[in-house]
What we know:
A: six-stranded mixed beta sheet, three-stranded antiparallel beta sheet, 23% strand, B: alpha/beta, MetI-like fold, 57% helix, elongated
Amino acid sequence: MSNETILEVRDACITFEKRDSVVHAADHISLTMKRGAMLGLVGESGSGKSTLAKAIVGMQPLDSGQIIIDGLSQHDRAKLRGHARAEIVQMVFQDPYSSLNPRMSVGDAIGEVLETYEHLSAEELRDSVAELLRLVHLPAEVASKMPDQLSGGMRQRIAVAKCLAVRPKLIVADEITSALDVSVQAVVLNLIRSLHEQLGLSMLFISHNLAAVRYICDDIAVMHHGRIVEVGPAEQIVRSPKDPYTRSLVGAIPSLGDAGRDVLLDPALAAGAPQPEGQR
Amino acid sequence: MKRTKQFLSSPLVIVSGAMIVVLVVLAVIAPAVWGAAANTENPMFLLRKPSAEHWFGTDQLGRDIFARTMVATRLSLVTALICTAVSAVLGIVVGAVPVVFGKRAQRWTSSIINVWLAFPVILLAMLTVIALGTGAAATTIALTITMTPTFARLAQTLSATVAGADYMAAARMFGVSGRRQVFYYILPEVAEPFVANVTQSIGGAILAMSSLSFLGLGVQPPVYDWGRLINEGFSQVYVSPMAAVGPGIAIVFAGLAFSLFGEGISNQIRRAYKPLPSAMSKRELDNPPKMLDKTNMDLVVEAAAERTEQHRAEVERLRAEDPQAAVVTVPRPAPVLSVRGLTISFPEGKRWNTPVKGISFDIEAGEIVGLVGESGSGKSLTMMSVADLAAPGSYVAADSIRFEGTDIVGMLPKDKRKLLSGIGVVFQDSLTALNPSMRVGRQLAEVLECQNGTPHREAMERAVEALEHVGIDPTQHAERKFPHELSGGMRQRAMIAMAEINHPKLIIADEPTTALDVTVQKQVLALLRNECARNRQAAVIVSHDIAVLGEICSRIMVMYHGAIVEIFDTALLRTPEKLKHPYTRALVSSIPTLETDKSRPLVTIDDELVSQQSANLADDDAPAASAKTIADATGAADAAAETAAVKEER
């Protein structure tokens, strides 16, 4: 594997056994991602995208296959401890109300992460925390606040700051904007974009929202029933989707261009008929 | 610390705290004060009844039972405290600490606790005593063994919230040390309820310890605790009841002291999670704010005029199509719902918090209107209050809320319920909105049975029919299934069927597709649209997603900080620059679409900028309608409708 590749998923399989069936959450998935790239992973609930995200960060064991991050397979990474392991890959979680310890101030929460790998004086710690907050466009005063004093969008930005504190080689962002209001989503998306430009982050951005993914990612992978059905440059996926599932996904996005045309007044659509091709 | 002060001033805590202090003082000084009297055998005073000299009488060796009871405090208390403390610590170690080691460790300890709990307490204690021999140490160990699994289970349950939280997973991933995870993440979560429970358990431990001693399994003579004293006094209970009752009183006193103190702690925890009670008088509560002076009547009048214009154009068009027609009738729909000055407030201490600030709007028959706003803008509160499903603790005031012409403000609850059965509600989360323990068909039929008194069999038939109408394949027999057996999309369809089943005039849908995938979302929206067209219903769709509303609605009302700031024709979304209010413009351009320019940052909503720009907007327009002009303005909107109705017929 070349040094240019940060993430390589090789033939990964994950299955869950239910009472009377087996669910293939990841069905022979292969995926590569360049260092410094923003890769979007799009899929609907049950497509297996969150399971894949958990597998990448090591929260979900694989049945077979390999996930190589920065040249290290999952077995190599399992042998590492502490910061050596933490700095390889980090994750930003979906629910901003569950991703911060409610009993720890913002400053303590970020400081705690810094202290896992460097010994800092109180003053240095404060400066580092302020610097990280500045990176996510928050004032240094936020450090003294408790999570319940913050809005969902601010919490999500602090979760990002905690990730940045580790200086990870890869960040997995799992549906980080789906619990937020649209206007707050814009703030977080802008932040992710500017961080990508400033710091050259490698990020796997997982979302069900194709429009959001297209906006911030260079490439998009589409996942459906545990398989990657299509990978390609963002524009190509959106403009000329090849896979039928991708086409239905693109077609289902409400478009402001159709506003007021009453496009939904069509019994066939209500019955769940497939979209006519080429409809946007 | 306000909470500490509040805690210490509770009468329960003061009384039980004083009782505990008495016990502790006794445990410390009793052997020194009464030790001699308790152990001096006096053959002159064998088995005496209570007297001024010997309050509880004397035992068969002539020792003073009151003195012995006092001296026994130390041993009874110390053994109980030791076994409670040790089992609490063990309980934390077995129950909560495995969270640090991940799921597998938690599963293992959970099975251990299960098996441990399955043993009957007394049996386990007796077996231990038999194995270890009688005596204070053995009983303490026995009790510790029986108390530990209960604490472990409690610690496990309490730490389950942390174990499942994302921040715990994140901490593990960041490489936060296990010790820190225990002390900064798990213990703080477990601490408060655990301490309350442990304190209460001390009382139980004293009782259990005494029981074992009473049965002769506990401490052995010459050592004695309260239980042993009862055992010894029991032989003379008919002659001198105080010999047994005296130590019994001590046990009850100690048991009560710790139980009540524990109760005081749990009360305090409960209070901390409860909102402050209202500090307002009844008269103040009867007069919640109305904010009629801030209402958006100008927007309602404007929208009505626009609709009139559209209606006139429609009449003109039909007339041009068929000039021979003698009469062209296009009924001008009357508002099915007309709200004036709706204000929703919550009492908070001495002040009112008013998330919905005197809003007004009309919904005409057959039209689908969107209500868009961010979380906390008051949009759901508004529509739920209209459907008489106001949030608990809220106070709703309005100038008028007219449904099909009848004002429901001040109506008797019984009449209101009857009238509002003409409104069907679709909730966001079908999993919590449907009763999980009732089959879907039964739930639908229940609506008809309650609202119309339809016989059961007929109601069931119509329920099956209704499910078929919303596109659920009849061969699936959704009516026989429980809500969790259906997929999210199917459940939402069933929910729409339930809202539609009694042919309401108005559907209120609160974020009907937010929980659904985009491909399913489109189908469900289309279903809603087609059902409304088929049944000629009006609908209000509440959503945070203006793009979704753009697809299904003909008009959109924008809510911002509890006020309606703009009402516009959906077609305007195609040209967002023509929208009037800066917030609406920002809202539309903050959504990334498949056409958004990737090289530029998304527009975000800057509250300060919005308020500045909207102030300018207000300056341009006439000043907002005052309370007095509401009635006039309402009249104007109605008059506009009437003129159209007159004009449409030649």
